[in-house]
Amino acid sequence: MTKKKQSIHTVEKIGGTSIADTDAILKNVFLREDKDRGFYNRIFVVSAYSGVTNKLIEDKKTGEPGVFSLFSSAESDWTWGDALTSVGAKMREINADIFDDHADQTAADNFVRERIEGVRSCLLDIQRLCSFGHFRVDDHLSTVREMLSALGEAHSAHNTSLLLRQHGINASFIDLTGWRADEAPTLDERIMNALEQVDLEKELPILTGYAHCREGMMQIYGRGYTEATFSRAAVLTNATEAIIHKEFHLSSADPKLVGEENVRKIGRTNYDVADQLSNMGMEAIHPRAAKGLRQANIPLRVKNTFDPDDSGTVISGDYKSDIPGAEIITGRKSVLALEFFEQDMVGVKGYDAAILSALERHRVSIVSKSSNANTITHYLYGSLKAARRVSSDLEDKFPSASIAVRKVAVLSVIGSDLNRSGLTSTAVSALADNGIELLGMQQPMRHVDVQFVIDESDYDKGVAALHKALVEEFDEREESRKAA
Questions:
Q1: What is the spatial distance between Cα 170 and Cα 165, in angstroms, rounded to a whole number?
Q2: Residue 297 placed within a domain
Q3: What is the biggest distance separating any 2 CA atoms in the chain, rounded to whole angstroms?
Q4: How does residue 435 score in pLDDT terms, banded at 50, 70 and 90?
Q5: Domain assignment present for 15
Q6: Which end of the chain has fewer surrounding CB within 10 Å, N or C?
Q7: Residues sharing a CB contact under 8 Å with residue 231, sequence separation 6 or more, in sequence order
Q8: Count of structural domains within the chain
Q9: 241 and 354: one domain?
């Protein structure tokens, strides 16, 4: 197949939590026949089962070491070797739950055994090689991280293809991981070569979310590599739509904070909003993956796996709400405010560049920033230890500067068009009425988001206050206006 061929197909990604619920994903996605496309004309990209990549690399939230972290820091093979054995056991447990003594369980277990033991042999060879002084383990760590990442997606994609064939679907396992391959093509070449002989009208390709390529998926996209594969597959095959199946609707706020009965499904929004969500850690799609879809003018639909009759939320490049207002209230806890004050800064260039250099050196992510004549404040997401290292570097470079680091939270009001009179003053009043002190505020001219800096302890209360004032009460006023 080529990009030039006109097609009615979609490219769909299934997240780890959804793919782990076998009954729901079969009933609500794979075996749900489309009135126009039937069961085919779809390309699926699957993530590893929930929790598996955490065990292979490190826990994304807690930082608990996985096989990679243990391998990169251990002097013996016992710690990482035991962890790798544990991952293999976990994968076989998943197989047993899915196949329930069906003959395919043997094929699934053999697949896991081959991959796990192949990786173990490779890691042992690296350790033996690096026991000689001419070779260093550090030189191979990025490759090891890529190889381990591939295991989870290969496991879930292989299982999915076996399972679908049990249900009469002509599914094919498309292994993009480069297992035992001699060469590393570009990502685009890897995807197109794999799909070249696929007839989408008669075959359902199941692609691994990880794709081994020359660029290095983990190096470029981090843990968002599955969405990069998904995005490139959609762009390269000229899909009519890209679809992500999640375990929840893209909603106006976290239901746990504002109440299930008060949240609104978004329904429609644009890629600007998706980028702001990513910046706040509420990722609808990785920003680089979204960029490709936006440039190719491919809409992204986010669907709830467990609510298949709902059409979900469509994200497109040109959408703008007919009625300006807030669509989503979210934010980040545990943000570090790095405040750099220097009296001599007025009219002098170079301070900002030095701060950015220190942040990059210590790999600290920027949520947002603000500045005035003599103060630059960066709101950061990372470890306190890393932020203090940045502060120390800047104190050495600028001994007369005053630098402070404190923990705060950032609330974000996001929408495709926030250019509504009184929105910001309503938000400030809502925070004040709930006893929440405002430490800082930013409102860019693009009218896509407004950010409020508050004490971390007020975060939950702040989200609820803003959602009530800007979403719930706003909807009530609009309904009253229409009724009148």
A1: 6
A2: no
A3: 82
A4: very high
A5: yes
A6: C
A7: 242, 285, 286, 288, 289, 290, 292, 293
A8: 2
A9: no
**Alpha-carbon distances of 225 from 177, 209, 218, 298, rounded to whole Å:** 12, 7, 6, 19
Pairwise CA distance, residues 152 & 146, whole Å: 11
3-state secondary structure of 42: strand
Beta carbons within 10 angstroms of residue 114's beta carbon: 12
**What span, in angstroms and rounded, lies between the C-alpha atoms of 482 and 201?**
47
List phi, psi (to 5°) of 453: -95, 125
Spell out the SS3 assignment of 324-362.
CECCEEEEEEEEEEEEEECHHHCCCCCHHHHHHHHHHHC
8 A C-beta contact, residue 150 and residue 47: no
- Give the range of the structural domain holding residue 193, as residue numbers without chain letter: 10-247
DSSP state of 247: S
Asked if 456 and 407 count as a contact pair (C-beta separation under 8 A), the reply is yes
At 90, list the tokens: 């976990």
Q: Are strands 328-341 and 375-381 parallel, antiparallel or unpaired?
A: antiparallel
- Tell which residue, 335, 295, 323, has the closest CA to residue 474: 323
Spatial separation of the C-alpha atoms in residues 25 and 308, rounded to whole Å: 10
Q: What is the model's pLDDT at position 3?
A: 46
- Residue among 198, 204, 196, 191 at smallest CA distance from 234: 191
The predicted model gives 185-206 an average pLDDT of 93
d(C-alpha 65, C-alpha 42), whole Å: 36
In a domain, 86, yes or no: yes
Pair 112, 230 in one domain: yes
pLDDT for 62 beyond 90: no
Which one-letter amino acid corresponds to residue 107? A
Average pLDDT rounded to a whole number, residues 230-255: 93
Task: Specify the DSSP element, H or E, that contains 8.
Answer: none
pLDDT digits (tens, 9 = 90+) for 258-267: 999 999 999 9
Q: Does 185 reside within a domain?
A: yes
Out of 247, 264, 294, pick the residue that ends a domain: 247
> How far apart are the C-alpha atoms of 198 and 275, rounded to whole Å?
33
Query: What pairs with residue 440 in β-bridges?
Result: 453
Cα angle for residues 220, 225, 227 (degrees, 5° grid)? 125
What the block records as the tokens of 433 is 């009425």
Give me the residues paired with residue 332 across strands. 410
CB-count burial class (<10 Å; 0-12, 13-18, 19+) for 442:
middle
- CATH number, domain of 147, equals 3.40.1160.10
